[in-house]
Amino acid sequence: MRKILFLGFNLAVICAIAAGALSGVYTLTRERIEKHIWEQQVKAARKVLPEAKEFKLEPRLAKKAQKRFSILDKIFIGFNSKGEIVGYAFQVLPRGYGGPIILMVGISGGEVRGIEVVDLKETPGLGDGILNKGWQKQFLGRTLKDPLEVNKDIDAVSGATISSKAVTNGVKTALQVFEKFATGGSR
Known about the structure:
By secondary structure, the chain is α+β, with helices and mostly antiparallel strands. It is built from 4 helices and 5 strands. The protein is 43% helix and 19% strand. The longest helix is centred in the first third of the chain and has 47 residues, at 2-48. The chain has one domain (46-182).
């Protein structure tokens, strides 16, 4: 019995030291990690809304929109050099074949200006076909008036229908959020 208590005590001490070390590393690196994530998000927002010179995160609006659109993650407002709003970049997380796809969708004047796949876990050689800029171009200029349905007005990536539907769903959600919340619409 004494041996079991001794081993249990040693295990507890080792766990406490490991937890303390992990907490310390997290504390030391948290700011750098958050800064890197912000830079990656702004980089993606610039790609989908190139006319914007500055971006502001809009967490209150995103939180309000998330109640209705669960795949919405973040909303960025893009401003020109005069401080005027030129559009919005929506980070959405549609579910693909391999898990969530982190997708940035730029919208200005109610139409898609660009899309950027920030991260994905789709099957190499199949689902990662959504990274093809030629395939992504079919979303440019789309509005809510378009059906945005795979195999109707959106061509699927061959062998990757689920991934194609995920991106299409993400773009459609971004347009809906833009219409409902970013423009103050009442739909």
